[in-house]
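Please predict the structure of the following assembly.
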Amino acid sequence: MNWSFTLFRAKGITVKIHLTFVLILIWGAYIWSDRADTAMTGALFGVVAMLLLFGAVTLHEFAHSFQALRFGVRVRDITLLPIGGVARMESIPEQPRQELQIAIVGPLTNLLVAALLVAFGGVLSLFGVIHMGDLINALGKTTWTGLLAYLTAANLLLAVFNLIPAFPMDGGRVLRALLAMRFPYPRATKIAVAVGQSLALLLGIGGITSGSYSLILIAVFVWFGAGQEGKLVEIKGTFGDATVAYAMTRHPQTLERDATLAQATDLLLSTSETAFPIVSADGSFVGLLTQNDLLKGLRAHQPAAPVHPVTRIDIPTTTPGESLIAAQQRMTAARTHALAVVDERGALVGLLTSEGINEAYRVLSANPALVIGANGQDVPQSHPQPAVAG
Ligand code: ZN
């Protein structure tokens, strides 16, 4: 089940909101409820403040996304979660200059918003609506000046927090990009990961000595985020230019379109495969029958029933020439353990499974030279890998 629903679309980017986002509104209402004359006014202020804060988060993610689009990077969507926003991009460019620009525009946008809010406050104070002199004192108060102070502080905090030079923060990407202008990409990543984890360690020690749980939580978040980025680049480095052809099963067990659940069960029990491509009479690919869907089908239907109602036709396919890393990311995004490999005419040529990918990873970790010769042809240009930018 997908817990997100679409808010709106802009420039081809879908902005989604996660259901748990409601938690942050409740939290806002609770925190502010005892800061006004009545609990109701305070709670309302809290909800408005949270919504405006997430407006700032949305602007931050749009800044990343628009900059990415300028470099031809496809942006799939922006999701708003209680912990912040996530823009899913098809790839993070390895050109340091582009990564640098995509990463830095997020925090810069929040700095710009903070500056505009102060300027806006200046204009309002000319008309006596608010009092700019009390801006700092108004922080935490449920007045118009208080709201302006809160939003300004929130945008400044967003900018500063995201500029911490550690993955998965924007600052980590900025640092890696700067390093990558001097060192090879994997080495730049390694240094950036080490800097990020050292910072996490310092934050953690600071959190423990000061008894601040939120600091400890951030430290843990940064530690694992940095490690994950390091692992991703390592996997990419191991796979190198390996393509789907390298890891796919070449003659997978298939089922005809009008096969029955009983026939599929026979195949499942007599082979080691856990997913079967369904093909039409001319060999073209129709859909994928996974073990889970087969079992579901057996619970709901008689064994003599056809397989096609439980066949998945929504799982994306891949091609032999696609980069292995791109196919793996697509597999993860589609929440499946297998992808059908088809040629340009849509005919089935193989099956790529997560076990096959893991096997390829182990082989290539043992000896990267093994990738050449396996394909027996020129290695196609590798595709960029999907990634998440916060
Ligand atoms: Zn960001």
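The two ends are 23 Å apart (CA to CA). Residues 39-70 form the longest helix (32 residues).
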